[in-house]
Amino acid sequence: MTAETNREFEFRGVNHLALVCKDMARTVEFYRDVLGMPLIKTIDLPYGMGQHFFFDIGNGDSLAFFWFPNAPEAAPGVASPRALPALGEMITAHGSMNHIAFNVPAEHFDAYVERLKAKGIKTSPVLNHDDSPMQASAALHDGVFVRSVYFFDPDGVCLEFACWTRAFDARDVAHDPMRADGTRAVGVVGAVAPAMQAAE
User: Fold this and answer.
1) Is the model's pTM score more than 0.70?
2) How far is the CA of 64 from the CAs of 5, 20, 32, in angstroms?
3) What letter would DSSP give residue 178?
4) At residue 164, what are phi and psi to the nearest 5 degrees?
Protein backbone atom coordinates (compact mmCIF):
# COMPACT_ATOMS: atom_id res chain seq x y z
CA MET A 1 0.00 0.00 0.00
CA THR A 2 1.44 3.35 -1.03
CA ALA A 3 0.91 6.22 1.39
CA GLU A 4 -0.31 9.42 -0.21
CA THR A 5 1.64 12.56 0.61
CA ASN A 6 0.20 16.00 1.15
CA ARG A 7 1.49 18.21 -1.65
CA GLU A 8 -0.07 21.41 -0.25
CA PHE A 9 1.04 21.65 3.40
CA GLU A 10 3.48 19.81 5.67
CA PHE A 11 1.43 18.85 8.73
CA ARG A 12 3.23 17.63 11.83
CA GLY A 13 0.23 16.31 13.73
CA VAL A 14 -2.19 18.20 15.96
CA ASN A 15 -0.60 21.23 17.64
CA HIS A 16 -3.45 21.42 20.14
CA LEU A 17 -7.14 20.71 20.50
CA ALA A 18 -8.92 23.51 22.38
CA LEU A 19 -11.97 22.61 24.48
CA VAL A 20 -14.08 24.69 26.87
CA CYS A 21 -14.43 23.72 30.54
CA LYS A 22 -16.76 24.90 33.28
CA ASP A 23 -14.16 24.86 36.09
CA MET A 24 -10.46 25.25 35.24
CA ALA A 25 -9.29 24.12 38.67
CA ARG A 26 -11.27 20.89 38.39
CA THR A 27 -9.86 20.46 34.88
CA VAL A 28 -6.28 20.88 36.15
CA GLU A 29 -6.93 18.45 38.99
CA PHE A 30 -8.26 15.83 36.54
CA TYR A 31 -5.89 16.12 33.57
CA ARG A 32 -2.72 16.86 35.58
CA ASP A 33 -3.33 14.97 38.81
CA VAL A 34 -5.47 12.05 37.62
CA LEU A 35 -4.28 11.49 34.04
CA GLY A 36 -0.73 12.75 34.67
CA MET A 37 -0.58 15.23 31.78
CA PRO A 38 1.99 17.96 32.53
CA LEU A 39 0.50 21.46 32.70
CA ILE A 40 2.83 23.39 30.39
CA LYS A 41 1.23 26.81 29.81
CA THR A 42 -1.28 28.98 31.69
CA ILE A 43 -2.80 32.18 30.32
CA ASP A 44 -5.08 34.77 31.92
CA LEU A 45 -6.89 36.28 28.92
CA PRO A 46 -7.17 40.09 28.70
CA TYR A 47 -10.19 42.08 29.93
CA GLY A 48 -11.28 39.29 32.29
CA MET A 49 -12.28 37.21 29.27
CA GLY A 50 -11.16 33.99 30.98
CA GLN A 51 -8.25 31.57 30.90
CA HIS A 52 -6.46 29.27 28.45
CA PHE A 53 -4.38 26.34 29.85
CA PHE A 54 -2.33 23.76 27.91
CA PHE A 55 -1.49 20.16 28.86
CA ASP A 56 1.26 18.09 27.20
CA ILE A 57 -0.18 14.95 25.58
CA GLY A 58 3.11 13.79 24.06
CA ASN A 59 4.84 14.07 20.69
CA GLY A 60 4.82 17.87 20.92
CA ASP A 61 1.00 17.87 20.92
CA SER A 62 -1.22 19.57 23.49
CA LEU A 63 -4.74 19.46 24.87
CA ALA A 64 -5.92 22.96 25.72
CA PHE A 65 -8.90 24.29 27.65
CA PHE A 66 -10.59 27.66 27.73
CA TRP A 67 -12.50 28.85 30.80
CA PHE A 68 -14.92 31.69 30.05
CA PRO A 69 -16.75 33.28 33.02
CA ASN A 70 -19.97 33.74 31.05
CA ALA A 71 -19.89 30.70 28.77
CA PRO A 72 -23.19 29.00 28.03
CA GLU A 73 -23.87 25.72 29.82
CA ALA A 74 -23.10 22.55 27.90
CA ALA A 75 -25.61 22.12 25.09
CA PRO A 76 -25.28 19.72 22.19
CA GLY A 77 -25.38 21.73 19.00
CA VAL A 78 -23.79 24.87 20.49
CA ALA A 79 -20.34 23.83 19.48
CA SER A 80 -18.54 26.45 17.43
CA PRO A 81 -17.44 30.07 17.74
CA ARG A 82 -19.50 32.80 16.06
CA ALA A 83 -16.36 34.42 14.60
CA LEU A 84 -12.67 33.82 14.14
CA PRO A 85 -10.36 34.91 16.99
CA ALA A 86 -9.51 38.63 16.70
CA LEU A 87 -12.53 39.14 14.42
CA GLY A 88 -15.40 38.73 16.88
CA GLU A 89 -16.98 36.53 19.55
CA MET A 90 -15.11 33.22 20.03
CA ILE A 91 -16.76 31.92 23.23
CA THR A 92 -18.36 28.47 23.01
CA ALA A 93 -20.28 26.31 25.49
CA HIS A 94 -18.87 24.04 28.21
CA GLY A 95 -17.79 20.73 26.73
CA SER A 96 -17.61 22.11 23.20
CA MET A 97 -14.68 21.92 20.81
CA ASN A 98 -13.62 25.52 20.29
CA HIS A 99 -11.06 24.85 17.54
CA ILE A 100 -8.44 22.38 16.37
CA ALA A 101 -4.90 23.59 15.67
CA PHE A 102 -2.71 21.80 13.15
CA ASN A 103 0.99 21.93 13.93
CA VAL A 104 2.89 23.36 10.95
CA PRO A 105 6.61 24.08 10.52
CA ALA A 106 7.58 27.54 11.78
CA GLU A 107 9.77 28.09 8.72
CA HIS A 108 6.72 27.66 6.42
CA PHE A 109 4.11 29.47 8.54
CA ASP A 110 3.98 32.77 6.62
CA ALA A 111 3.96 31.01 3.24
CA TYR A 112 1.11 28.79 4.43
CA VAL A 113 -0.93 31.82 5.47
CA GLU A 114 -0.48 33.25 1.97
CA ARG A 115 -1.37 29.87 0.44
CA LEU A 116 -4.65 29.78 2.37
CA LYS A 117 -5.51 33.27 1.14
CA ALA A 118 -4.60 32.33 -2.43
CA LYS A 119 -7.08 29.47 -2.17
CA GLY A 120 -9.82 31.99 -1.31
CA ILE A 121 -9.97 31.14 2.39
CA LYS A 122 -10.83 34.03 4.70
CA THR A 123 -8.40 34.02 7.64
CA SER A 124 -7.95 35.86 10.87
CA PRO A 125 -4.97 38.17 11.21
CA VAL A 126 -1.78 36.32 12.18
CA LEU A 127 -1.61 36.28 15.98
CA ASN A 128 1.84 36.10 17.55
CA HIS A 129 0.82 34.90 21.02
CA ASP A 130 2.94 36.25 23.85
CA ASP A 131 2.66 37.07 27.57
CA SER A 132 1.88 40.77 27.08
CA PRO A 133 -1.33 42.22 28.55
CA MET A 134 -3.09 41.74 25.17
CA GLN A 135 -1.66 38.19 24.77
CA ALA A 136 -0.67 38.83 21.15
CA SER A 137 1.61 41.00 19.06
CA ALA A 138 1.47 42.12 15.44
CA ALA A 139 5.24 41.54 15.25
CA LEU A 140 7.24 38.39 15.90
CA HIS A 141 9.61 38.85 18.88
CA ASP A 142 11.51 36.71 21.42
CA GLY A 143 8.51 36.57 23.80
CA VAL A 144 6.20 34.93 21.25
CA PHE A 145 5.54 31.28 22.14
CA VAL A 146 3.18 30.28 19.30
CA ARG A 147 2.07 31.82 15.99
CA SER A 148 -1.52 31.27 14.85
CA VAL A 149 -3.86 31.92 11.96
CA TYR A 150 -7.53 30.85 12.15
CA PHE A 151 -10.14 29.99 9.52
CA PHE A 152 -13.44 28.11 9.24
CA ASP A 153 -14.15 24.89 7.39
CA PRO A 154 -17.33 24.75 5.24
CA ASP A 155 -19.42 23.63 8.23
CA GLY A 156 -18.15 26.38 10.52
CA VAL A 157 -15.56 24.29 12.38
CA CYS A 158 -12.83 26.66 13.52
CA LEU A 159 -9.39 25.51 12.36
CA GLU A 160 -5.95 26.91 13.11
CA PHE A 161 -2.46 26.59 11.68
CA ALA A 162 -0.05 26.96 14.61
CA CYS A 163 3.68 26.69 15.15
CA TRP A 164 5.55 26.73 18.46
CA THR A 165 8.38 29.25 18.51
CA ARG A 166 10.06 28.42 21.82
CA ALA A 167 10.17 25.73 24.49
CA PHE A 168 8.08 26.16 27.65
CA ASP A 169 9.66 26.32 31.10
CA ALA A 170 8.56 26.86 34.71
CA ARG A 171 7.81 30.57 34.05
CA ASP A 172 4.99 29.56 31.72
CA VAL A 173 2.88 28.01 34.50
CA ALA A 174 2.05 31.12 36.52
CA HIS A 175 -1.74 31.48 36.87
CA ASP A 176 -4.02 29.94 39.48
CA PRO A 177 -7.06 28.35 37.80
CA MET A 178 -10.60 29.68 38.10
CA ARG A 179 -13.48 27.80 39.74
CA ALA A 180 -16.96 27.65 38.20
CA ASP A 181 -18.06 30.44 40.56
CA GLY A 182 -15.36 32.82 39.23
CA THR A 183 -13.00 32.58 42.21
CA ARG A 184 -9.35 31.59 41.91
CA ALA A 185 -8.27 28.20 43.25
CA VAL A 186 -5.14 29.59 44.90
CA GLY A 187 -2.30 27.10 45.22
CA VAL A 188 -3.67 24.46 42.80
CA VAL A 189 -1.06 25.22 40.14
CA GLY A 190 1.82 25.78 42.56
CA ALA A 191 1.09 22.58 44.46
CA VAL A 192 2.96 19.41 43.58
CA ALA A 193 0.49 17.01 41.97
CA PRO A 194 -0.35 14.01 44.22
CA ALA A 195 0.57 11.62 41.38
CA MET A 196 3.96 13.30 41.11
CA GLN A 197 4.52 13.09 44.89
CA ALA A 198 3.75 9.36 44.80
CA ALA A 199 6.27 8.85 42.00
CA GLU A 200 9.06 10.60 43.93
Assistant:
1) no
2) 28, 8, 12
3) B
4) -70, 145
Scanning 55-185, the segments in alpha helix (DSSP H) are 109-118
DSSP secondary structure string for all residues of 35-74: S---EEEEEEEGGGTEEEEEEEEETTEEEEEEE-TTPPPP
Residue 17: DSSP 8-state: E
Considering the domain delimited by 14-199, tell me its CATH architecture: Roll (3.10)
Q: How far apart are CA 100 and CA 14, in angstroms?
A: 8
Question: CA torsion sign, 162 to 175 to 80 to 75?
Answer: positive
pLDDT of res. 77:
56
* N-terminal to C-terminal alpha carbon distance within the chain: 46
Average pLDDT along the chain: 86
Give the residue extent of every domain in the chain: 14-199
Reduced to 3 states, what is the DSSP secondary structure of residue 92?
coil
pLDDT beneath 50, residues of the chain: 1, 192-200
